[in-house]
Specification:
The chain is α/β, with parallel strands linked by helices. Helices cover about 45% and strands about 15% of the residues. It has an eight-stranded mixed sheet, with helices on both faces. About 45% of the residues are buried. The structure holds NADP nicotinamide-adenine-dinucleotide phosphate.
C-alpha cells in the first residue's frame, strides 16, 4: 500500500542528487513533498503530487524548528521523514581537528537528530510514521581518509537501530538506505579538513581521494536510490537497512562472514598508494 503512512513527506537535502531524485519520484507518485536545502529550490506541481521547496539549514536549531513547524501547519502532519542532507569532509585521521569533526557531525549526524526532535514526537502521538535515514556504505566500512564521514555514517547506523526499537511500540518505523557510489553533487561539495589542504600524507592521500571521486562520478544515477525509497515506503515492515548501488551488497555480505583483518586487507587494496 503506497500511502500506508500518509501522503506528506519531508525530505532534507532535496535540492540535489539523492534527495532531489527522491522528491520528484515520490511527487510523481502522488505524495505531497516538502523538500529543504540551504539554497532552497523550485516548486513543481505534478497534479496529485507536488514538490514544495523551502530554505532550511539542518545545522541550525532555529531553522529546523521554524521550517518543520511551518510545514506541519501547512500540511497538518509530516508522515514520512527522509534525512538525505549530507556532506563529506576528508582528511587523514591526525590531520582532522575536533572542529573539522564537529562540522562533519553537525550536518550528517546532529542534523538527523534535530530532524528527529522536530518531527518524531508528533508521529509518536499519532502512532504512525516512517523515518528513512540515508546512510552510506561508508557507514558499514571505514573508508581510508574519510574517517570523519565514516564516523558520522556509523553514528547514523546506531541511531537508526535504536529508533527502530524505541519507536516500535508507538507504530513509528525507521530504516536505513545505504547508497554505494552515486553520481551526484556530493563529489564537488566535498571539503578538506583544514590541515588536509596541505596533507603530509602526500600521494597516498591524493590518489585515494582521486579514486573516490572517480568511483562516485562513474557511479549509478540517484534515481536507483529514489526507486529503492519508493519501494521501502510501500513496505509494511521495512528492513533495518538496504544497500543500493554497485557491488556493495556483496561487500556487506563479505564483511559479515570474513574476518576483520581480511576486510581491512581488501579495503586497503582498493585504494592505490596505500601499503598492503
Ligand atoms: N553520492 C554518493 O556516492 C553517496 C554515497 C553514499 C551516501 N550518500 C549520502 O547521500 C546523501 C545525499 O547526498 P548526495 O549524494 O545526493 O549529495 P548532493 O548532491 O551534494 O546533495 C546534498 C544535499 O544536501 C543539502 N545540504 C547539505 N548541507 C545541508 C545543510 N546543512 N542543511 C540542509 N541541507 C543541506 C544540499 O543542498 P544545499 O547545499 O543547498 O544545502 C543538497 O541538497 C548524503 O547523506 C550522502 O552522505 C551519497
Amino acid at each position: 500500500m503506497k500511502y500506508r503512512y500518509g501522503k506528506n513527506v519531508f525530505i532534507t537535502g532535496a535540492s540535489s542528487g539523492i534527495g532531489k531524485a527522491t522528491a520528484h519520484t515520490l511527487a510523481k507518485s502522488g505524495f505531497h513533498v516538502y523538500g529543504i536545502s540551504r539554497s532552497g529550490g523550485e516548486d513543481t506541481d505534478y497534479g496529485d503530487g507536488f514538490v514544495q521547496m523551502l530554505k532550511m539549514d539542518v545545522t541550525l536549531d532555529d531553522s529546523v524548528r521554524a521550517v518543520t513547524d511551518e510545514v506541519m501547519r501547512r500540511a497538518g502532519s509530516i508522515d514520512i521523514l527522509i534525512n538525505a542532507a549530507g556532506t563529506g569532509v576528508c582528511g587523514a585521521v591526525d590531520e582532522c581537528s575536533a572542529q573539522d569533526a564537529y562540522m562533519q557531525m553537525n550536518t550528517n549526524y546532529l542534523g538527523v537528530i534535530r530532524m528527529i526532535n522536530a518531527v518524531v514526537p508528533d508521529m509518536r502521538k499519532r502512532k504512525c510514521g516512517l523515518c528513512i535515514n540515508i546512510g552510506s556504505v561508508g557507514g558499514i566500512f571505514a573508508i581510508p581518509f574519510q574517517s570523519l564521514y565514516s564516523s558520522s555514517k556509523f553514528a547514523v547506523e546506531a541511531l537508526t537501530e535504536c529508533m527502530r526499537i524505541e519507536l516500535k511500540p508507538f507504530g513509528v518505523k525507521a530504516c536505513l538506505i545505504e547508497p554505494g557510489d552515486i553520481k551526484t553533487g556530493f563529489t564537488a561539495a566535498r571539503t578538506y579538513a583544514e590541515k588536509a589542504k596541505n596533507s603530509e600524507y602526500g600521494e597516498p592521500f591524493s590518489r585515494a581521494i582521486a579514486q573516490m571521486e572517480k568511483d562516485e562520478q562513474g557511479g549509478a544515477s540517484p534515481q536507483i536510490i529514489a526507486n529503492a525509497i519508493l519501494k521501502m515506503i510501500k513496505r509494511k515492515n521495512p528492513p533495518v537497512r538496504k544497500v543500493v548501488g554497485g557491488m556493495y551488497s556483496f561487500f556487506r555480505f563479505l564483511k559479515r562472514v570474513f574476518p576483520d583483518r581480511l576486510v581491512e586487507f581488501i579495503l586497503t587494496a582498493m585504494y592505490p598508494g596505500l601499503k598492503k
